[in-house]
Structures are given as C-alpha cells and as structure tokens.
Amino acid sequence: MTRVCGTKGHSVINGNSTSNRVEIRDSYGVRTATTADAFILYDKSFINDLAEFASAVLDNQPLTCTPDDAYEAAKIATALQYSFRNGVPVYFDDNGLPIMEAAKVNGH
Fold first, then answer.
1. What is the domain extent for residue 95?
2. pTM for the full predicted model
3. How many domains does the chain contain in total?
4. Exposure pattern of 64-88 as b/e (b: 16+ CB <10 Å)?
5. Is residue 85 part of a domain?
6. Domain contains 17
7. Dihedrals φ, ψ of 43, to 5°?
8. What's the confidence (pLDDT) of residue 20?
9. Long-range pairs for 83-89 at CB < 8 Å and ≥24 separation?
10. N or C terminus of the chain: which is more exposed, having fewer CB within 10 Å?
11. Which pLDDT score is estimated for 85?
12. Do β-strands 10-13 and 2-5 pair in parallel, antiparallel, or remain unpaired?
C-alpha cells in the first residue's frame, strides 16, 4: 500500500483487496478509481515523449524535462520502491533527500 498525502487531501494506492485501484480522499469525499495499465493510461504521453526526444536529437530542440526534474523523479521513485520492498514509510528531509529507515525485523 502507498499513501500519498497533500495539504488538501490524500490518496491510497492498492490499500484494499483489489489491485490497481486508487482511493482518493479530499473535500469531495472518498472515492475509488480504477487505473488502467501503463500503455492505456499513458498512451499519448509515450507518443509525446518520443516525439519530443526525436525533436531534441534530430532538430536540436530543448526538452521540457530538465536533468533536475529527472533527478527529483528518480529520488521519489527510489523512495517508493524502498518503502514497498521494506514495508516502511519514507520521508524527505528539508533538502528534499529521502530518509530511508532500516526495515524492522521481528519488531526490532
């Protein structure tokens, strides 16, 4: 299960017995949305990303995603994987770096 918290609400991903569901809790109430597979969910995004990459390589056009953006996304993805694999929450410090605590073994 993953819980993503914000200032006006939060989302719970795969928190119930069914997979690929997102529970959203916000000022509108609680609702559950089914997420499609990545190719359906991000179909146009994949095409747009490929077109942008091709334009950058072939026509020397700028990318919309900076190396700093990619680094931030990688830090978040790494923290989410660590949390999932070790069953512990991951927090971020004031510098935006993940604080990855060691997994507890037998409650220790």
1. 66-107
2. 0.47
3. 1
4. eeeeeeeeeeeeeeebeeebeeeee
5. yes
6. no
7. -50, -55
8. 61
9. 83/2, 84/2
10. C
11. 87
12. antiparallel
Q: How far is CA 61 from CA 9, 20, 38, 76, in A?
A: 38, 36, 27, 27
Taking the C-alpha atoms of residue 84 and residue 78, their distance in angstroms, rounded to an integer, is 10
Q: Please tell me the distance from the alpha carbon of residue 93 to that of residue 79, in angstroms, as a whole number.
A: 12
Residue 60 lies in a domain: no
Tens of pLDDT, residues 59-76: 999 988 888 998 988 988
Residue 90 to residue 80: CA distance in whole angstroms:
7
Residue 80 domain flag: yes
Q: Give the end-to-end CA distance of the chain in Å, rounded to a whole number.
A: 21
Structure tokens at 65: 């995603």
3 alpha carbon, distance to own chain's centre: 10
Provide the 3-class DSSP secondary structure of residue 76.
Answer: helix
What is the 3 state secondary structure string of 17-75?
A: CCCCEEEEEECCEEEEEECCCHHHHCHHHHHHHHHHHHHHHHHCCCCCCCHHHHHHHHH
HSE toward the beta carbon, residue 27, CA cutoff 13 A: 3
